[in-house]
Amino acid sequence: MAKPAAQNQVHLPADFEQVFAVAEPIGGWLTVEQAFLLYRQARAVDRPGAVIVEIGSHQGRSTVVLALAAPDSTVIAVDPFVDGAMFGGLGTKEKFEANLQRAKVTDRVELVQAKSTDRRQAWERPFELLYIDGKHDYWTVTDDLKWATHLPEGGSVLIHDAFSSIGVTLGLLRWVLPGTQLRYVGRAGSLAHFEKRRPSLADRARFIRQLPWWVRNVAIKVLLRLRLYPLARLAGHHDKADPY
What we know:
Helices cover 40% and strands 14% of the residues. It is α/β, with parallel strands linked by helices. It folds into 2 domains: 11-209, Rossmann fold (3-Layer(aba) Sandwich); 218-244, no CATH class. Helix 2 (32-45) packs parallel to helix 3, helix 3 (61-69) runs parallel beside helix 4 (89-103) and helix 6 (138-144) packs across helix 7. The two termini are 19 Å apart.
């Protein structure tokens, strides 16, 4: 399978290769590099009774990676499956359920069909890992970040499109960068990794250094919307799909 340049010099374990071979045909926006980050974090917390929360499941590409990486854990998938051109409504839910069946992980996944913002305030169940890939507007992301309250100290928060979406990045700049709850660890493409731990000045500086890359991605999105593909290629983007 093809690997992005960032992973060309990195040995990918055979068991991850098998996991991604199952997940890769599923529709969605998760690169092999990003799937490997999900896989490593899910493996790190896997134990009987452990819980992983995923906000935004779409057709189940990331859900399958998490469930296969953590066979002793439960993945709670929170997604309303609302209608709309980007979401697909009940048709997407049917694909999600079929993909879980095909991957043989139905018994490891609990679906919560609801908006994450509606369920958060009444949520009491602790979990070990949080993956956020829900609605990308500023207000929803701001609310989704509050799910981290239920993580243990040192628990990981993975946020997709953290440096390719205006709404997500603005939410992180407003609430995470000056905050005291999450420290920036690194990223796989635009999938950012945070830990529930008080950030140092070095952590904040490392986060700030990602912002030029975010500006570049937003500019490429504008060029793609205007169909100025040659200019996007000059910026190093050789695909008609958005950078993520």
